Amino acid sequence: MTATANDLRTGRALVESALFDSIAEFTVTHFGSDRAKAERATDQALAFLATVGTATVKMVPSDDVDGALHAFILHTADYRAFCETHAGCFLEHNPRPGGGGRVLEEVQATAHAMKAQGFLVMDDLWTVNGENAAQCDSDCGRDYRAV
Fold first, then answer.
1. Which one of 20, 26, 29, 81 has the minimum C-beta count within 10 Å?
2. CA angle, residues 126, 56, 15, in degrees to nearest 5
3. Residue 35: which domain range?
4. Which candidate, 112, 91, 118, 88, places its Cα nearest to that of 10?
């Protein structure tokens, strides 16, 4: 049986609405996102962090998710509490040395790890240089109504 979007967990459900709204608003103000995209990216950043604690792959956020992740990190006390609850420890921020670009295969592995944990992954936010990094296989996400 294939899971539907309604069966999947969301990052948004992991925090109180006031904190979610604050992270999204910070993302709008400081990272230039529109509100709808900021909310979606915030959801994905929370799901990303909740997956880090159990992941067996290197976890790397996409560019679209990274701004919301940084916005949450700057909510220091809430970020610390979230990490301890969902990952079992404080998650240090470890940027790539030299600030190089994201590697498609690492972002793909991240999106797949989140999907494996039962999170809804918003594919359009998981790209590297315009290439989709969230497709679980060649058939995943195909519109079955089309011939």
1. 29
2. 60
3. 10-92+101-132
4. 118
Q: Which amino acid is at 60?
A: V
Its pTM stands at 0.85
* DSSP characters over 10-38: -SGGGS-HHHHHHHHHHHHHHH---HHHH
Q: Is the pLDDT confidence value at 145 over 60?
A: no
Query: Directed axis angle between helix 17-31 and helix 63-73, to 10°?
Result: 120
Q: What is the pLDDT of residues 24-64, one digit of tens each?
A: 999 999 998 899 999 999 999 999 999 998 999 999 999 89
User: Residue 1's pLDDT is what?
Assistant: 42
Residue 75 domain-assigned?
yes
Q: How many domains does the chain have?
A: 1
Q: Which of 102, 93, 109 is nearest to 130 (CA)?
A: 102
Residue 32's identity, in one-letter code, is G
What value does the mean pLDDT take over residues 110-121? Answer: 95
Beta strands, E only, 72-129: 127-128
